């Protein structure tokens, strides 16, 4: 797996981690246990007891600490062993790795690089349930596929026309026209006008308008997208640049999505979606989530099948198309950042 | 896997491939998609899009063509990409492999060698539903075992006495007497008389007769068998050679069977069976198929168990017996043909 | 797998092997078939036909012999082929391995070393259903984990406090106090007094007493444990040595347990438990077995999770604690015996 380590990975939805209930997830192949302590502090540790490698996620929260429930070793929030039952001396090496962890935008983010270098400002500006403007639903899907294949999918919306023919009902325009793709410091931006078309399935009242869509796909694999529909002619009036969203006739929604590599060929995909309060209500949110569940299931069928074909191919090769500009930009950015991390490690050694 | 490539492999029953419904099967480790075009032409392509390796079998038939439903690449029947949505220029290397494919005797046959060298005359003379003389039922079974183990099973009918003690109820004679085994250009022929015995289960009326059985086992793994029962003394009257089947008292049936290697340790086994019109009707066909389902399930239990033992054996060895003459002849033929193919490839390079 | 070969492994409970019903189990990666012949002799053979590696456990008992039900080879109790149907000459190499096998203490024991060196005196003195003093129940569990991890678990009862908090309800004393650990020629002995405490769950009447526990853990992985509770002060009166069990107030039970390595990462765990006749009846046995089923399920959850963490760890390491004295002694003994076996093999060669 070639993924950036100095980045915040989504480990869970906030509401998936209960009070003093250890939660397990593998990120970049590393087992991580996350818990909320008695004082409601969020703590993330290596999920592997230093004694005999039992998972601490089968353990018990005790105050601020976590006890391994195999032979009772007790761990401090910094990963140091605080107690070995029946033994007075605790060796110095008796510690597990501790991860920087932050709860923000309704997600639990874990920094997979050195905890000392964790930089909160690098958390992508997702929209959580606490956002005043959006009414959101949420979900997640586990993939039997490499996270990179899901990233590639999200970096090229030409697939909407085909993969989502039955759910979103996207027109050919999504495949034939290219968005404006702009490199960002930590990702890629996609913007596009689709002009003079009716809405997608479920929102198609036959009225033609100009539709604006814009999303950022950010390291390590976070998609943040908004958009809406406007009076016909708006795209041209804006010179095909970004409109003022306040001018939208309707359809403004926000979706936050995150792809977290677990093992080499498994990943968890988190997503939320919902309308702006001025453009919809809980009922619309529920309708959108129903559509999302269907559409993201279509992606999963295609991507897991793609993974199986790749696995059965002795010498896998791809042939990029002109729709792959964003895919290529993002994967090059990942490679550049990974190389820089490896150089830094070598220089430090 | 050491299998002949210049051969016709059964990919499906004719009736398993619907109009414009792509059908997927892996043969010799290669993913193949087969479809009937709008004009009812049969087309077989590599089931792996040249773009990002999505399976074309999740695609959509459009006229004579097949569209990948990931990002919309459209493929001609010869495997060449006809369209990349939103892209004007199509690179020369934008093509997938195209296979020679023929529908005959109710089977879909795919030539796994170079399509240019496909030789229709090498299709084994199976008996299909269109044959005027036989009333056939059909089925298939998927094996978690190497195809070669199923071939070996079909090349030595001494197993009938033991594996099929509960279904066919074959006598000890099947294990103790040896058939006449004759090498053919593309296979092995087995012929035998079993004299003075009653019929097998379901056809045993207590009357003793002489039973004739003859089958060819042909490259790549196709069994074609007929036989029937005759007046006692017929074997001797024929000097233990082949009888005139028109003289049979009854019991003339035909079975076509085919073993197709999928992955290294998976295979699909196709089979039909049924009586000659003069010796039975639809009811007898159904009774025979019920018996076949039971018997071929017995083979599957034994062969998959055999595969598990082989897999758990560090240095697997076999000890052939005198019943293995046909097995040995056929496997040597396969080795000879494989070697010749490899030599030809080397000489061409 | 590094396990002693010159040892008796438990293959089954006596009552699990019916008359003339071949029984299959893999021990140390070797497939073994065990059957009771017509004369009720117990026979253990390599479960892999010399012909084409079909499992003999799918075979049929015929008198003292076992017939392979693939092509009918018939095996003598010493593993030699007695008959190849339709073949007069039987080659010398036509034999499978024969194992020394003994039924004792309600278990079927198989010697995994050279059968000629099998030494019945090395069978651990387990307590079977035929024992006059104990009323026993029994069971077994299959583990998706290496046998050594189960041995390690049974060699360190500090886990009782944590793993079995919900079942046995063991106090902290089990984790904080250390037993007396004594090396034996073929194992390790654990003895301890826990003084002035009430009984564990299900036997806690609030009365405090001194509890004595003693068990041997013997090559290859057999645990034999007894104990009971005594008047407070008995431990001190005995100078913390072993008491006379006849002085027990109650609670004397016996449990025999055996861990059998199957494949590299699978194992079968056999166990019995029950009260001394003077201290309980069938109803108590059933209550204890219910508790055992719950507790051994807790071990399985922890140990299989531990195995998964180990498998996902590139460079697995452990950090022993002072509770690991018995684990270390036993594993060193195994290593010593394995080394001696390998030296003997080298010298013989």
Q: Can you give me a brief rundown of this structure?
A:
3 copies of one chain form a homotrimer. Chain A has 349 residues and is of the alpha+beta class.
Care to describe what's here?
The structure is a homotrimer of 349-residue chains. Chain A contains six helices and 17 strands. By secondary structure, chain A is of the alpha+beta class. In chain A, the strands form three sheets. A seven-stranded antiparallel beta sheet of chain A has the order 11-17-16-15-14-13-12. Chain A has a six-stranded antiparallel beta sheet with strand order 1-10-9-4-3-2, with no helix packed on it. In chain A, a hairpin with a 5-residue loop joins strand 7 and strand 8. Chain A is elongated, with a radius of gyration of 22 Å. In chain A, 45% of the residues are buried. The mean pLDDT of chain A is 96. Chains in contact: A-B, A-C, B-C. Chains A and B meet through helix 2 and helix 5 of A and loops of B.
**Between the first and last Cα atoms of chain A, what is the distance in angstroms?**
22 Å
User: What sequence of helices (H) and strands (E) makes up the elements of chain A?
Assistant: EEEEEEEEEEEHHHEEEEHEEHH
* Spatial strand order of the main sheet of chain A: 11-17-16-15-14-13-12
- DSSP strand (E) fraction of chain A? 25-35%
């Amino acid at each position: 797996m070639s993924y950036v380590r100095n980045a915040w990975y989504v480990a869970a939805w906030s509401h998936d981690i209960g009070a003093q209930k250890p939660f397990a997830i593998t990120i970049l192949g590393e087992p991580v246990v996350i818990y909320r302590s008695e004082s409601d502090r969020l703590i993330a540790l290596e999920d592997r007891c230093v004694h005999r490698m039992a998972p601490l996620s089968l353990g018990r929260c005790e105050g601020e600490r976590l006890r391994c429930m195999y032979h009772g070793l007790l761990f401090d929030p910094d990963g140091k062993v605080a107690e070995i039952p029946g033994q007075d001396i605790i060796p110095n090496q008796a510690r597990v790795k501790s991860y920087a962890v932050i709860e923000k935008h309704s997600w639990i983010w874990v920094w997979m690089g050195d905890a000392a270098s964790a930089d909160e400002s690098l958390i992508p500006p997702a929209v959580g349930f606490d956002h005043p403007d959006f009414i959101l639903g949420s979900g997640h899907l586990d993939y039997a596929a490499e996270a990179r294949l899901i990233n590639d999918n999200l970096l090229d919306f030409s697939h909407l026309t085909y993969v989502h023919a039955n759910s979103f009902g996207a027109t050919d325009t999504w495949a034939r026209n290219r968005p404006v793709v702009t490199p960002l410091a930590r990702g890629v931006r996609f913007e596009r006008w689709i002009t003079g078309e009716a809405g997608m399935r479920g929102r198609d009242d036959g009225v033609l308008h100009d539709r604006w869509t814009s999303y950022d796909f950010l390291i390590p694999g976070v998609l943040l997208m908004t958009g809406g529909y406007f009076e016909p002619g708006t795209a041209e009036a804006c010179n095909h640049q970004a409109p003022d969203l306040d001018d939208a006739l309707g359809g403004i929604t926000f979706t936050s999505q995150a792809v977290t590599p677990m093992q080499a060929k498994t990943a968890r995909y988190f997503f939320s979606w919902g309308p702006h309060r001025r453009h919809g209500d809980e009922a619309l949110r529920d309708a959108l989530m129903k559509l999302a569940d269907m559409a993201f299931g279509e992606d999963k069928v295609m991507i897991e099948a793609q993974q199986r074909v790749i696995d059965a191919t002795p010498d896998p090769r791809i042939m990029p198309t002109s729709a792959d500009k964003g895919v290529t930009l993002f994967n090059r950015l990942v490679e550049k950042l990974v190389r820089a991390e490896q150089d830094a490690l070598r220089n430090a050694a």
